Hints:
230 residues; alpha/beta; Rossmann fold; 2 domains; 4-stranded parallel sheet; 10 helices
Amino acid sequence: MKTVGILGGFGPETTAEFYVSVVAKNRPFSGSHPAILIHNSPVPFDLEENAVKNAKNLEKFLPILLNSLEIIEDKSDFVVLPCNTLHIFIDDLRKASKKPVISIIEEVAAEAKAKKLKKVGLLATKKTLREKIYDTALAKNGIEAVTPDEHEINRLSQIIHLILTGVKSDGLKTELLVMIEGLKRRGAEAVILGCTDLQLLLKQGDSSLPLIDTMDVLANSTVRIMNGGN
């Protein structure tokens, strides 16, 4: 079995859930628990807030990511990053790493293609949406991305930050579901939860549209690779 290295701490609760998910998904395919290394990066709270809510100072995350990569890559066979926003640095990580770095963006785009989707909604942080990292990956697979309007994007980033701080309420869930209905009216056939923290608040049965949980997709890919898949 291959060992996965997880660049964690963006945020910690999602990292913990990702770990538990990989362990559970691995059970049917292996006679042992999986080999997992996690480095939980010490992200300053103010940096996290400014990045998520205001899409600012993201460049300060790159040295944090590279330090985390240096700590775990030698004892890992491949590396994953269960944070969508920080995939703006995927090329930097791949250039710096001696081991394969799996892209959550590429895996999710492949999942959407496998589902034969042509138009998908996207809920994500302001930075993810502005950089269009999903739009580009989806377009390569013949899929159009539908995103919230600017007012909704600002509120969505605020909601994601609240989730990161441990706030989860029915009111916040309702706001997200209203955004999903708006994407549905614009032709979305499914919605990508393009921030792994969103799965802490939204579940498949909550939405009138199918949800593509990016953390779940990455966990499935991780288990497949650990057990000898491509």
